[in-house]
Structure formats: structure tokens, C-alpha cells
Amino acid sequence: MPYIPHQLPEDRTPLITENIDLVDIIAGRMVTQVPAFMNRDDMRSAGMMGLIDAANKFQPEKKIKFKTFAEYRIRGAILDEMRKLDWFSRSLREKQNSINRCMVELERKLGRFPDEQEMANALEMSLEEYQEMLGQVSHLGCVSLNETLDHSESGNSFQDALIDHKLNSSPVNVLEQHELTHIIAEVLDQLSEKEKLVISLYYYEELTQKEIAEVIQVSEGRVSQLHSQALIKLKTKVKKDLD
């Protein structure tokens, strides 16, 4: 049972005990966004502090559901803890940049996305070493479907391209959105079958890495590797086309 400060108002205690599951749920969804050295216990600990903070600051008179408010505070607490750990380490960032550069060069040379063995060969390492590096950089949060792709005020993202914005959109915005959606559709079609499956299960079905691993019968680490490589491919292609 997680520790709950004794000074917490008695009427707020049920808010925590009835919503403890939220911490694990949100931690599971954020597992690919945190550094390798931030484990699930670190995330749960930070998430619990966010839940307790939410219970202390919740104001029912504002007509906002506690679950909605708590989810925001829990996620924020985990992200704050992540920043404190200074997760943009120089060595991991250099590994990420090496993969990105290699991906761009091989894609230009081959006229298609390289497979893992081709990437490993180009980086002069074994397949196992390359896959291990993929797992490491995945925890940098190097790219996600929520990452901004340009520096305009609209801040287009991968996720935005999958949402219908026809209502209240100007003709220019609709055209830009259509172009981004078309680019992403082309890239998704070029992913390996397992990469497509991981992206679909994670972003559309909203399964955790553990659940995806069970579905496609691989380890959680392998899911992390596939997720990382698929998103690097997306980022490489989309940024090049938009530029």
C-alpha cells in the first residue's frame, strides 16, 4: 500500500485510494518516453506524488472530474522527475544522432528504408549491438507521434495528421494537413510488418509495451526496439519531405 501523508485531509484520502490504479496505467503509457535509467518504480513513485498533490489541490466546485485532474498531475509529476534526471545525456544523444544520420544516408542510397541488418552493417556493429542501441535511444523520447514537426505556430505533429481537422480549418490548413497525412501514410506503408503492428497497437489500440509483447510474442525490449526504429523512420522521412 503506497504511503499517504498523515496530514492529508480525511475527506481527500478516498480520492487517492480509489484512483491508485491510475498511476500504473499512466506509467505504462509513458514507458517509452522516459530514460533507460528511470525504471517503473521511479515512475510509480513520482506518479504517486502527483496523485497526492492532485488530491490536495482538487477543487470540486470547478466542476472538473477528479480523474481528469489527477491524470494531468500524475503525468506532470513523472515528466518533472524525468527532467530532474537530466535524461538528455551526451552519449545517448550522440547514439541517436548516429542512427538518424545513418538512416538518412541509407534511405537516400537504397531508395527505401534500410532493414536492421543493413543499419548494423553501416554502423559497423553486430545486429545485436544495433538493436541494443535502439532500445537505449528509445528511452530518450527521441520521437513520438506527439512531437512537433515544424516551427510554425500551428505546430503540426504526427498525431495531428491522424485526426480529422476539417471543421473550423482554413483551406491552407486543410491542404497542409492533407499533405502531412499523405506523407505519413506512405511511410507507414514502408515499415516492416512488426513495426506496423507495434505502431497500430500502441497508438491506435493504446496497449502497453507489455501487452504488445504478449500479442506479437516478443520481449518488451524488442517492442521498444521496433517502436524506436519505426518512429525514427517516420521522423526521417517526414522532416525531409516537409523541408
Give the key terms.
Arc Repressor Mutant, subunit A; mainly alpha; 0% strand; elongated; disordered N terminus; 243 residues; Rna Polymerase Sigma Factor, Chain: A
Detailed description of the structure:
With 243 residues, the chain is an all-alpha fold. The protein folds into 2 domains: 75 residues, Rna Polymerase Sigma Factor, Chain: A, CATH 1.10.1740; 153 residues, Arc Repressor Mutant, subunit A, CATH 1.10.10.10. The longest helix has 23 residues.
Describe the protein's topology.
Layout: H1 13-17, H2 21-29, H3 40-57, H4 66-84, H5 90-110, H6 116-122, H7 127-138, H8 158-161, H9 171-190, H10 193-204, H11 209-216, H12 220-242
Shape summary = elongated
The average pLDDT score comes to 76
Rg over CA atoms: 20 Å
**DSSP summary: helix tally:** 12
Approximate helicity band: 55-70%
C-alpha end-to-end distance: 51 Å
Brief write-up:
With 243 residues, the protein is mainly alpha-helical. It folds into 2 domains: 75 residues, Orthogonal Bundle (Rna Polymerase Sigma Factor, Chain: A); 153 residues, Orthogonal Bundle (Arc Repressor Mutant, subunit A), CATH 1.10.10. The protein contains 12 helices and no strands.
